[in-house]
Amino acid sequence: MRSVAPQSATALSIGELSRGTRVNIETIRYYERIKMLPAPPRTASGRRIYGPAETRTLTFIRRSRELGFTLDEIRTLLTLSAHDSKNTCTEVRDLAARHLADVRAKIADLRAMATVLSDAVRRCDAGELPGCPLIDALSATAPLHVAADHGCARVGQA
If we measure between CA atoms, which residue out of 54, 43, 50, 53 comes closest to residue 4? Predict the structure, then answer.
């Protein structure tokens, strides 16, 4: 814990910080516990006080999370943002490029999932098979993308 600090005009309570950054109070405390956000100074009564630096860091973390970066990736980005070297932009770009590749892979997976679900809903609507095509697709031993490509196998059928 940092030393007790006098309260200034820019000092924010955890509630004010939460409202201003749109980050839940418990999430702020969690980020402090895992050292993503430095432990704030406290008043003589033990109340946490935050300032512009914590606001900026917390906003950075929230926006990074919205883009799907992991906490480890955000730690790296925070560390890189503290350095002002020629390589910083290249390192950030490389991290972002790897993350973009992961996002694109997830999008491809989501499209495949949408295809399977769409096919199952279509089969339900069409009444093609007795029973429930979605339950059958979820029960099939073949991967879902194979089930979508080859039709939904009934449970217990070869």
Answer: 43
Q: What are phi and psi of 12, to 5 degrees?
A: -120, 145
In angstroms and rounded to an integer, the radius of gyration of the C-alpha atoms of the chain is 25
Provide φ and ψ at 48, rounded to 5°: -65, 140
Burial class (CB in 10 A: 0-12, 13-18, 19+), 50: buried
Q: How far is CA 66 from the centre of its chain?
A: 6
Contacts of 154 (CB under 8 A, 6+ apart): 129, 131, 136
Give start and end residues of each alpha helix (H) in 6-68.
14-21, 25-33, 52-66
Residue 72 burial (CB count, 10 A): 8
Tokens standing for residue 89: 């932009």
pLDDT tens for 67-122 read 999 999 999 999 999 887 778 999 999 999 999 999 999 999 999 989 988 888 88
**What is this structure's pTM?**
0.71
